[in-house]
Design a protein that fits this description.
The structure is a homotetramer. Chain A is α/β, with parallel strands linked by helices. Chain A has one domain (4-181): Rossmann fold. Chain A is built from six helices and seven strands; from the N terminus they run E-H-E-H-E-E-H-H-E-H-E-E-H. The first copy, chain A, has helices at residues 14-26, 41-49, 66-74, 76-80, 102-115, 162-181, and strands at 4-8, 29-32, 52-60, 63-64, 88-95, 119-121, 147-150. In chain A, strands 1, 2, 3, 4, 5, 6 and 7 form a seven-stranded mixed β-sheet that branches. Chain A is globular and about 50 Å long. Chain A starts with a strand and ends with a helix. The A-C interface holds A 62, 95-104, 127, 129-131, 133, 140-145, 148, 150, 152-155, 159 and C 62, 95-104, 127, 129-131, 133, 140-145, 148, 150, 152-155, 159.
Chain lengths: 182, 182, 182, 182
């Protein structure tokens, strides 16, 4: 079992692709929050023993999906006894617009991690933002607090952006490094 | 039927008290989001014809309750056709800590309202923050973007703070004024 | 004199272009915050009598420039006596990355406006976020709470994005409509 | 020389008290940003070699003071070459209201730290929020992402809250622990 867990909700499969890229980078185990916002008892135990937890959710109507929020609310049980204290946390999100309100989702992930007395790690990546930059470049959206992905509203799961997937993977690599250090 | 709607979720009844105070100030109709995050078709219609919509939720784990978020996600249907465009929006929240992460909840309400192309109205109140200030004073917490209430974690529904209720009521009064103006 | 004021800081001229587009849409007067973060006494009077105030700043290191913040801090004088109460407020920002932390800047503008007991108006625009969308489309970045512009780090002032300028202009048009209504 | 630096701006001395409490907890060196928003070349070097940097600022008009922001903007030089990469970061703020918009200031600190590819550490403290809680208790305001202090608008520097100072000190202790670990 890995000491890094990627826990995410995906509505249509695009965020799942992003989660898999993060997990590949971190050599992490994946936990999918189901369509009803639930995870299993075994999943809660995995989170409890992990060194790092990476949150993932689409940005729906300006923040995490309700299913992710249901998971977050249920984590109040772990909060009361501070079971996740000092773990490493990070996050990623996907939505249709290039900017949209993705940053709002990342801010929420951080707020949640801080209630759990965690340590927050961002992408550690400079942006690709010159005139020569292409969307397929790493961190072409310019995400620092978390990994960002923009998938056009009519794109299939297979059409998610390669550069955004690479960015997601690099976030995973970075989190794994910190998980092994602390 | 009123042209102002207070739509809220309350887990244990404290936020309901706050919602009632806002509704009293605004002479608004109340819609309670149920424990499963749902409202009725009739409720959606009420929201569609309202001039102003006031959001309310406890702050759970750093943002709105998942039930409120489920409502927000369901409002994407109204978003696609911009049915709530140009309506007045405002918000309120309750949690145990004096500060806590209440501001995060209010920020989310604003982000949601802006996606709906709404107009955001805050409390319009100066804070009571001198040495002589008491918790029962109006806006003793110092909320500007929305109305704040702090209820100790072991307080009953009847023990919610009088000053915070008055603050909530005044937010309602203010929203109603704008609803009649626009 | 117009009843709408666009007050902005621009470090290198790109945000100035955006400010001019907003002002064109709103038929607004422009106030430029200088390199030392100052405006004139006459400027403060213009702000006092305006019906709407539109904030603009580049996003530097994750929020408004220090020059804009110096103006914001100086507005505490207007705050004490709530001279800007009930005015319409809106905002816009420019930075190099597509996403970057522009949303953080817009959030700050809103927070400032709410302390001044203002009313916040966003873009009122749906995003251009399908596969067919181009950067020159209106609101191709997907800004709701405020108007966003992304200018590559090595682009000249003349190379700012046409679609982002149009988005800025439409924000101005929208604010002017509300200024005339309230 | 300590491996932890507390860098802060204080307008009237209250935030300075808080900074000193944090520094005591972390056995940190203090750097005061001056009234013009500047620090010395020697200060920049200290920041460069530190293992942890703790940001402090009053909350003025909804975010950090312009002097702090001027420092933040000047840190873009360190950003370009990612000189602060992987350092530990934390933050604290003081303002008059119990809630006010302190969270906005803390959010900004985090956003800045993430651009610098840092690691964010919060208070790691549960709130004192039962009916029996007193303002002098540790973390009676309920700050998780950073340490909060509320000082009435007419309180002298000597009258800052003892519990808030203790909270500040504990943040310092926590940061020092992480600085020694990484």
């Amino acid at each position: 079992m890995s000491n890094v867990i990627v826990i995410y909700h995906s509505g249509y499969g695009h965020t799942k692709k992003q989660a898999e890229a993060v997990a590949e980078g971190a050599k992490a185990d994946l936990i999918a929050i189901d369509a009803n916002g639930d995870i299993t008892e075994a999943d809660w135990l995995k989170l409890e023993v992990a060194k790092a937890i990476i949150f993932g959710s689409p940005t729906y109507m300006g923040s995490v999906s309700w299913q992710f929020k249901k998971f977050a609310d249920a984590s109040s049980k772990a909060w009361f006894t501070q079971k996740w204290k000092n773990k490493i946390f990070a996050g990623f999100t996907n939505s249709a617009s290039l900017n949209g309100d993705k940053f709002s989702t990342i801010q929420y992930f951080i707020t949640l991690a801080m209630q759990h007395s965690g340590v927050w790690v961002g992408t550690g990546l400079l942006p690709a933002s010159t005139k020569a930059a292409k969307r397929d470049d790493t961190n072409s959206l310019g995400g620092f607090s978390g990994a960002l992905m923009a998938t056009p509203s009519d794109a299939t799961v297979e059409e998610v952006n390669k550069g955004d997937l690479e960015t997601a993977k690099l976030l995973g690599v970075r989190v794994a490094e910190f998980a092994n250090k602390i």
